[in-house]
Amino acid sequence: MNSKLKSLIGLCRKSGNLLCGATAVENAIKFRKCHLVLIAEDAGESIRRKIEGLCISSGINYKILFNKEWLGSAAGLDGKAVIAVKSKDFADGILKLF
Questions:
Q1: What pTM, to 2 d.p., does this model score?
Q2: What are the pLDDT digits (tens) for 35-83?
Q3: 59 — alpha (psi -120 to 50), left (phi > 0) or beta?
Q4: Of the candidates 4, 25, 40, 49, which lies 20 to 30 Å from 91 by C-alpha distance?
Q5: Residue 91: which region, alpha, beta or left (left: phi > 0; alpha: psi -120 to 50)?
Q6: Among candidates 82, 68, 91, 81, which has minimal Cα distance to 5?
């Protein structure tokens, strides 16, 4: 699952359907511009609580997985605590891996 998930996240970023960082993800959730949020297990407690709460209140799927280093690596960036998938097709593909 790890390699398939990493590949999908990478493709998602290359296609312009990935948002990285707490502020960008928070805005995407508020304006319903994303279909899936991935949160690193080692994300800060306040960020994690805030993003989870927004996802729940907005009805957006979210998953907590791995760590910031892994999530950043999958996105082709330095460690990232949260990323959001804008494309429904990519979000569905990622969710099928769980």
A1: 0.93
A2: 999 999 999 999 999 999 999 999 999 999 999 999 989 998 888 999 9
A3: left
A4: 49
A5: alpha
A6: 91
